[in-house]
Amino acid sequence: MVTLKFVFNQEKLKQAGKTEEELLQPMREHAKKYDIAEPEHGFFAKDGEDAMCVIGMFIPEITRKDVHYLDYLDEWTFDIDGEVEDCIEETKKWWKHERKRGVYYDEE
Length: 108
What we know:
Helix content: 40-55%
Distance between the termini: 34 Å
Mean pLDDT: 91
Strand content: 25-35%
Largest sheet: 5 strands, antiparallel
Number of domains: 1
Order of helices and strands: EHHEEHHEEH
Radius of gyration: 14 Å
Number of helices: 5
Number of strands: 5
């Protein structure tokens, strides 16, 4: 089983004038394309040969489109059969590499 879990910081959402539903919508659209289930609010899951690929490809896709997506999350985890990766930390590492190409993520 492969899962992607989103836990949003309610105070940061409120300050930014954003909602969970607004920020989950891109994942929900992605989920429809690839038959990914949302058994719980903000928790997406899929079994099968392509599960890791189709769920995992959303992570860089959304952070390229909205560099501030991470700002609204308290937790964002990618779990592959019990091996859990912190998407927030991994994305920050990725952004450090992107700086070499002139793309910046402002952590403030």
